[in-house]
Every structure is written in C-alpha cells, then in structure tokens.
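hey m, so remember when u said the tokens were messed up on ur end? i reran from scratch. heres the input so u can diff it against urs
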Amino acid sequence: MEEVKRICPLCGAANPLEGRICVRCGADMRQSLPAAPGAGPLVPWREIGGALALGAAYLALELGWRLLRRRLRKLALPSRRSMLPEVMRRLLRREPAPKAEERVGELSLYGERVWEVRQRGARFWGAERFLWRSTRR
C-alpha cells in the first residue's frame, strides 16, 4: 500500500502528512491546507447582486412586453358591435324593418376587407367595412 504524502506548494517535494515544515525548502506546509468550512462566503455578494439585478430587469422587460401586447390588441381589434352588419344592429336595437315602399328604389352596397399580420408569435388583425347606399325617389 502506498503512503499518502503532502506536496510542498513551493518546491513540490513530498512530505509526511503530519509534517508542518517542508523537509527540502523549509516552507510552512500549513498554508497549503484547504480552508475550513465557513471560513469565507461561498458566493461573493457582487455576483449575487448582479444575478438579482439581471432577474429584476428580466421581470420588468417581461411585464413591459405583456402590457404592450395588451395595448396593441385593444388598438387593433374593433369592438364587437362595430363588426356586426347593419341588419344585426337593427335586430339588437329592436328597430322595425323598413316598409316595402321605403325599400323600393334603395340600393345598398356592403363591403368588407379583413387583414391579418403575424409577427414574432403575435397576431394582429383588423377589419374594414363600408356601407354605401343610394336612394332613388
């Protein structure tokens, strides 16, 4: 069985484990001992502060993105009521339908254009509707 030796930090000579002074150069061997547990902080405070600052910046950025997405959705989406055609609006308001004699000579043109954009996982869309009427009397 091989005997375990302590290596001198200055000259690299092998010394007995219980020795306090190197047999070759006379250097103090206690300096090469590992530090006792709890002798110093495992993680420097500067690194902890940097990690906390990075985490706080990430949370602030994520919150900003969520608020911006919510704001863009409100701006891009028309209200549900404006999306309904004129007939449905009349039904919801419970207005009577126009009489037959009022409808004679009336020309209505209804058009709709819908657009959608997808960018970086976000979806933006909108609708443009128009109603053109001409009455002949």
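this time it looks ok to me. The two ends are 119 Å apart (CA to CA). if urs says something different then somethings off w ur setup not the seq
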